[in-house]
Amino acid sequence: MARSHKKAIAFLASAAPVAISARAELVDRYGDVPLHDAEVIVALGGDGFMLETLHASQSLDTPVYGMNCGTVGFLMNAYAEDRLEERLAVAGEEVLNPLMMRATTVTGEVHEALAINEVSLLRAGPQAVRLRISVDGRVRLEELVCDGALVATPAGSTAYNYSAHGPILPIGADVLALTAMAAFRPRRWRGALLPKSARVRFDVLDPAKRPVMADADAQSVRDVISVEIRSEPDIRHRLLFDPGHGLEERLIREQFF
User: 37, 47, 174, 217: which is the annotated catalytic residue?
Assistant: First the structure.
């Protein structure tokens, strides 16, 4: 039987002691190369660290294989030190496109950030916020009074979006979820499913009295007056999963708990 190709691996670990210890064991067994020389990146940590790794490596087009050394580990594979090269050889690949957030503040500053899971707008004071929602340049909701709202990708639909009672989206679906958090008016508004190509704009209607912050995968901007969100098809994040444990299976499994 032909031996599997020995890949050049870059091991990255979160700051958690268990992840640091795991990295030392794996580097001792399989070696380690600089990030730019790697054929595959192995990320050791939880989902938050996976997002950090994907953002840090987005210019490299190098696949990332996560091993769970955190808590939930939705984007990760099970941790094991043995047979890593064999697991990498048979892993399936999922390609994710992030969202681009363009947020404008009350002082006129413009901030751009990418989000793999979701872009969210959240109240930054004691009162509910007032948002106007436009899709592809057309106003769809004149006023949403709520604690916040978000736009989620299929990969992020089981995260904050699901906690806010948004829908779980199949990983191959070319749609985005627009979900409100604690909507007060319209009281029964349940959000919307939008084409992946949609351009969503939120305008903050009363920023002085009801301040809003915007967040793209933990990259936060305070005191925003408008936020524009669109999918970014030119950026590809390549994730590797063990056979039978890809994102499609995980998304389906989440709905039957």
Answer: 47
Q: Where in the chain is the domain with CATH 3.40.50.10330?
A: 9-96+236-254
Nearest alpha-carbon partner for 111 in 246, 222, 204, 205: 222
HSE-CB for 251 with a 13 A CA cutoff: 17
Tell me how far apart the alpha carbons of residues 230 and 201 are, in angstroms, rounded to a whole number: 9
Dump pLDDT digits (tens) for 157-190: 988 999 999 998 887 789 999 999 999 999 878 8
Instruction: Please give the model's pTM, rounded to 2 decimal places.
Output: 0.85
In angstroms, the first-to-last Cα distance of the chain is 41
**Amino acid letter, residue 195:** P
| Encoded tokens for 79 | 């941790």
The single residue listed with the structure tokens 């508004």 is: 189
CATH number of 9-96+236-254: 3.40.50.10330
Q: How many helices (H) and strands (E) does the chain have?
A: 5, 17
Please tell me the distance from the alpha carbon of residue 133 to that of residue 139, in angstroms, as a whole number. Answer: 6
Residue 47 appears among annotated catalytic residues: yes
Please state which CATH number belongs to domain 99-231: 2.60.200.30
Could you report the per-residue pLDDT of 142-162, keeping only the tens digit for each? 999 999 999 999 989 988 999
* Positions of CATH 2.60.200.30 in the chain: 99-231
Picking from 131, 223, 136, the residue whose alpha carbon sits closest to that of residue 186 is: 131
Strands 64-68 and 237-241: parallel
